[in-house]
């Protein structure tokens, strides 16, 4: 099945649902005219459909390999990467001051969505560079920015993120990698890092590693961590590459999916690195990159959901089985229709939420307004967790639509499910996203959440004249979510919040999904009304059970002892 980029959905969402007009009306992004947006979406779609998508199967069947210390990438990946770099897609949202295009993150999000659908293994590489570019723009010295950022924007060099160690996963503060000062102002970095996405390749001149390490006077925990730029080859002041640094790829992980993306174990043995940001301020700098990546990873899930849906739809339109009337193909069966409608409705809802998140980021960039910043922060864990959950669920349903053939690798349906599975784990597990949502993101007393809920209710009020039944359902869901949010804010014991954190995040995403589908029904054609009706009547009611879970608190959960679980 040939992938077709959902350009129509992006245009519709930007024009009618996610308030992208607010972004283009600012001085910062005034040059993002409708014609420019249309040209960008069209060109990106063409690249993804014609160049990137054909690489997806090759990456799965012919994984990246480590041969004599050299990473050999999958067939065609070098050419695919060059198309991405030459098109300027890596530095879309980077500042024009450092050679970027200065475009809204909303457009970058749409393009990353398309690239994720096309070949997630390859898309991971520019995503890592995009996050590193943003971290360097915000935290690095002018010398480091001027040396590294233009090279990454051009695609000559690429970036990675090095946090995890064998004993330090989600607990980053347990890391042991050391940084010893050198006489020339650089540092000697020593330690081992694991799960390093695109830790090396054979198509960029240099690989630039951002590495978390602890200085000799660094206190235990995250407050004693610093961030360092540690390149594969050490450049001179003009960007000319010199000697090989004292780092190497020890091995590549054998993974469930994403076989085309080399996930490395990295060894640093007194490697030369340069401080990024202040001493002991590494986590603040790294979180800039991680927050960028969390939006990006949520979009990866959405992109895979889109590809899996298209794959399943094509199969259902072609496969003849049973006697359901009509064409005789399985799409005529009610349950297959249910599965396909669920896949499409959830993918659309998750995509709209990701674009809402990106718009909030753009408005923060353009205005510096604290309200937009709070909204972006609140939507980030929802985008990441819901987007990747939808990716897993839709790709799993895609296997089911294929029936027995979905379990056969030749159809390609299983690859989507295998590739997307890790997105719910890396860049902060979805459980951690939910805990962040009910703890840190509610430290404002729920103000950011209540602002969103107020907008949802206002949208429902406006829709009552044309779609009264759908509007009432969305309004009531927002009220229920408001009550649950008020209950959470009242809980001083964080365990009471954490026990229901995952269902709360899911419920919030469900209600936001109802909101965007209702807005789409208001502005769209009959097909969008039908899809909104399906979502609001059949999927939105899930929030009721989820919120019941939230308000049960932690007491009965924590009463279940470890012994009870093994009894």
Strand content: 5-15%
Number of strands: 11
Distance between the termini: 48 Å
Proportion of helical residues: 55-70%
Tell me about the biggest sheet? 7 strands, mixed
What is the typical, i.e. mean, pLDDT? 95
- Total helices: the number is 21
- The appropriate CATH architecture of one domain is Up-down Bundle
Briefly note the CATH topology name of one domain: Four Helix Bundle (Hemerythrin (Met), subunit A)
Shape: globular
Write down the Rg. Answer: 24 Å
Unreliable runs, pLDDT <50, ≥5 residues?
Answer: none
CATH classification class of one domain: Mainly Alpha
Structural class: alpha+beta
Protein name: 3-methylmercaptopropionyl-CoA dehydrogenase
Family: Belongs to the acyl-CoA dehydrogenase family.
Function: Involved in the assimilation of dimethylsulphoniopropionate (DMSP), an important compound in the fixation of carbon in marine phytoplankton, by mediating the conversion of 3-(methylthio)propanoyl-CoA (MMPA-CoA) to 3-(methylthio)acryloyl-CoA (MTA-CoA).
Enzyme class: oxidoreductase
């Amino acid at each position: 099945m040939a992938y077709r980029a959902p350009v129509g959905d992006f245009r519709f969402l930007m024009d009618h649902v996610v308030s992208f007009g607010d972004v283009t009306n600012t001085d910062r992004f005034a040059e993002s005219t409708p014609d420019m947006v249309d040209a960008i979406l069209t060109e990106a779609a063409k690249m993804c459909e014609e160049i990137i998508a054909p690489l997806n199967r090759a990456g799965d069947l012919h994984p990246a390999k480590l041969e004599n210390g050299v990473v050999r990438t999958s067939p065609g990946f070098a050419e695919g990467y060059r198309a991405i770099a030459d098109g300027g897609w890596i530095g879309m949202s980077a500042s024009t001051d450092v050679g970027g295009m200065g475009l809204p993150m909303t457009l970058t999000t749409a393009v990353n969505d398309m690239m994720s659908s096309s070949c997630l293994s390859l898309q991971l590489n520019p995503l890592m560079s995009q996050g590193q570019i943003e971290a360097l723009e915000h935290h690095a010295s002018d010398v480091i920015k001027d040396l590294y950022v233009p090279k990454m924007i051009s695609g000559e060099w690429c970036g990675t993120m090095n946090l995890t160690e064998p004993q330090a996963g989600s607990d980053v503060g347990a890391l042991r990698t050391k940084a010893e000062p050198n006489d020339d102002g650089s540092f000697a970095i020593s330690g081992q890092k694991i799960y390093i996405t695109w830790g090396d390749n054979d198509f960029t001149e240099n690989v630039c590693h951002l590495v978390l390490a602890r200085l000799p006077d660094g206190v235990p925990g995250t407050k004693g961590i610093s961030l360092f730029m540690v390149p594969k080859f050490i450049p001179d002041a003009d960007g000319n590459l010199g000697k090989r640094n004292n780092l190497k790829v020890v091995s590549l992980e054998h993974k469930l999916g994403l076989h085309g993306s080399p996930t490395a174990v990295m060894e640093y043995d007194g490697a030369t690195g340069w401080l990024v940001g202040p001493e002991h301020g590494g986590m603040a700098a790294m979180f800039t990159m991680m927050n960028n990546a969390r939006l990006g990873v949520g979009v990866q899930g959405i992109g895979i959901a889109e590809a899996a849906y298209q794959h399943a739809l094509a199969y259902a339109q072609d496969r003849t089985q049973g006697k359901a009337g009509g064409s005789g193909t399985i799409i005529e069966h009610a349950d297959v229709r249910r599965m396909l409608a669920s896949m499409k409705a959830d993918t659309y809802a998750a995509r709209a939420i990701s674009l809402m998140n990106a718009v909030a980021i753009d408005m923060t960039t353009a205005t510096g307004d604290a309200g937009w910043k709070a909204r972006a922060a609140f939507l980030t864990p929802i985008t990441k967790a819901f987007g990747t959950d939808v990716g897993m669920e839709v790709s799993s349903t895609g296997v089911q639509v294929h029936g027995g053939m979905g379990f056969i690798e030749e159809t390609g349906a299983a690859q989507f499910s295998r590739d997307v599975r890790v997105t719910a784990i890396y860049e902060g597990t979805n459980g951690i996203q939910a805990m962040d949502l009910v703890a840190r993101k509610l430290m404002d007393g729920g103000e950011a959440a209540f602002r969103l809920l107020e907008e949802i209710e206002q949208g429902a009020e406006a829709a009552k004249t044309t779609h009264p039944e759908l509007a009432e359902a969305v309004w009531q869901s927002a009220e229920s979510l408001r009550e649950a949010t008020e209950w959470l804010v009242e809980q001083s014991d964080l365990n009471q919040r954490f026990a229901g954190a995952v269902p709360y995040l899911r419920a919030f995403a469900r209600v936001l999904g109802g909101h965007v589908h209702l807005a789409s029904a208001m502005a769209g054609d009959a097909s969008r009304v039908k899809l909104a009706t399906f979502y609001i009547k059949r999927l939105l009611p899930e929030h009721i059970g989820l919120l019941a879970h939230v308000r049960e608190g932690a007491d009965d959960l924590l009463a279940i002892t470890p012994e009870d679980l093994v009894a």
